[in-house]
Amino acid sequence: MKIKFNIIILLSCIFLFPLVSSIIEVSINSSSSYNLEDPIYFDYEIYSDISQEIYYFADFNCPNAPIAPIVAFSAEISPVSPIKKRVYYPNISQQTESQNCSAVVFIKYPERKIFTKNFSFIAKESIDILINLCQDSSCYYPARVFERGSEVYFNYTISNNLSQLDKVEAKIIYPNGKEKGILVPGEESFNEIGTYYLEIVASKEGYKGVNKSVMFSIIKESANINYSNISSLKEPSFVLDNNRGNFYSTLLISLIVSFLLVLLIYFTIKFKKG
After folding, report:
1. What is the CA radius of gyration of the chain?
2. Domains 22-123 and 126-219 share a fold
3. Longest C-alpha distance within the chain, in Å?
4. What is the mean pLDDT of each run of 10 residues along the chain (274 residues)?
5. What one-character-per-residue DSSP string does 211-226 give?
């Protein structure tokens, strides 16, 4: 009888064990959107109905932003002592694009649970600048290759419907690596043959700064061809010889075909008379 009672107690413990497992809940609080200048963070609270030790991670998930190192936490938790913390997103780059992100709390132990809350990251609009290299001040003749000593004209256009920029800095990088600051719009002449780069750094309040460069080349004077004299040039002798050979070949073929036609007509008439 005592053995049966012990078995019943053991089975009851086995079946009732899942019913006494702990309940862990997480509350995440964050803004629905963040700007580049804002500190990006979220607050979280972890609750448990029993006293226990837990292991968990709290982090951000942004698909197109640098990933911060993931840090695991361990803490004692109880019904009267929940975990309350704040997590900041570190080192947001000025070049980060707008995107949708998530605040994530992942409970690893004693049971695996994931809690998330979505938010959006709104980045500054980029300055869309186009660098122009031209042969004239009005830029009717754009180019990327210029003769040595000729004037190279520099300017730029903006595609953001901006009337002007707050700051524009430009420099020329020479083939030997030397750098020289210039003004844009402006012009400059170059005597060193080779490949050059024009680099422009521009900024505007409320917009993402831009750094762009274009390549151009300085060459010797281009060859000038007098096309008016081309028509007076004689054909090379091998061209004349080739044309003469084609004439004789055509004449020979015509004579052979004519001879065969005469023979055909002669034998046709003779056959009808006979």
Report:
1. 43
2. yes
3. 142
4. 49 45 87 86 93 92 78 89 90 78 93 93 85 93 94 88 85 94 93 95 86 93 54 48 60 74 72 65
5. EEEEEEEEESPPPP--
**Whose CA is closest to 205, among 166, 161, 231, 164?**
166
The amino acid occupying position 221 is: E
Q: pTM for the full model?
A: 0.52
- Token representation of residue 228: 């008016």
Residue type, 145: V
For residues 107 and 26, the answer to whether their CB atoms sit within 8 Å is yes
- For residues 115 and 106, what is the distance between their CA atoms, to the nearest angstrom? 6
Architecture of domain 22-123: Sandwich (2.60)
DSSP string, 109-135: ESS-EEEEEEEEEEPPEEP-EEEEEES
Q: What does the block give as tokens for 84?
A: 């309350």
167/169 Cα distance (integer angstroms): 7
State residue 241 phi and psi, 5-degree precision.
Answer: -60, -40
Domain ranges of the chain: 22-123, 126-219
Range 126-219: architecture per CATH: Sandwich (2.60)
